[in-house]
Write a structure and sequence with these properties.
- The chain has six helices and eight strands.
- The chain is of the alpha+beta class.
- It has one domain (29-204): Cyclophilin-like (Cyclophilin, Beta Barrel).
- Strands 3-4-6-5-7-2-1-8 form an eight-stranded antiparallel β-sheet, covered by helices on one side.
- Strand 3 and strand 4 form a beta hairpin.
- The longest helix has 13 residues, at 8-20.
- The N and C termini lie far apart (61 Å).
- The model is unreliable at 1-20 (pLDDT under 50).
Length: 205
């Protein structure tokens, strides 16, 4: 077996840097917390109840805390149905997080107008993408989509999001869902200039 000596500086750095890192701070997610979404159509506030869906609430809190949704586009807006967001502005970041799935929560709440739930493609496949219910959606209850929060202020705002680009392909004709996932804002911003977006999302009292 052939081996190669590493420079002394590299060896020293490999020993020193781990010792300099601060231990990760454990974050306690509140039983109930609120997030203000500042968007291109105005602001709305989401109230998350941890008991509704603990895994979803923890992940949502984590993503808001790191600014994951800032500049995220509402890339799937279907009038009277849903408004979906949750791909990071940087496709390299999204490429990592989209694969960090959380396990399913039992369905405790109904998909009523104003509630939020994580998108999924099967069992325990929720990661970053979220949709807002723009109407009561009993069909989503049957498909085990699990609400974790609801809009408590500004419910009129999501109804203003631009919906002219329609459903994703192949049902629609404009937006390629694969490119949304793989290229995120690099694909969305230039090609779909009317698409509404989150300016920033932050915790509020």
């Amino acid at each position: 077996m052939c081996t190669r000596s590493l420079p002394v500086s590299t060896i020293l750095l490999s020993l020193i840097l781990p010792a300099c890192r601060k231990p990760a701070t454990k974050v306690s997610v509140p039983d109930v917390f609120r997030v203000k979404f500042e968007t291109s159509q105005g602001n709305f506030i989401v109230e998350v109840t941890h008991a509704w869906a603990p895994h979803a609430a923890d992940r949502f809190h984590e993503l808001v805390r790191m600014g994951y949704y800032d500049e995220a586009r509402f890339f799937r807006v279907l009038p009277g149905s849903i408004a979906q967001f949750g791909v990071h502005r940087d496709f390299n970041v999204h490429a990592v997080w989209r694969k960090l799935f959380i396990v399913d929560d039992p369905p405790l709440q109904k998909n009523l107008r104003g509630t939020l739930a994580f998108a999924k493609s099967g069992s325990s496949t929720r990661s970053t993408e979220v949709f807002i219910n723009l109407a009561d959606k009993a069909v989503l209850d049957e498909q085990s989509f699990v609400p974790f929060g609801k809009i408590v202020e500004g419910m009129d705002v999501p109804g203003k999001f631009y919906a002219g680009y329609g459903e994703l392909r192949p049902e629609g004709k404009n937006i390629d869902g694969n490119r949304v996932e793989e290229e995120t804002n690099e694909y969305l911003v230039q090609r779909f200039p009317k698409m509404d977006y989150i300016q920033r999302a932050r915790f509020v009292p």
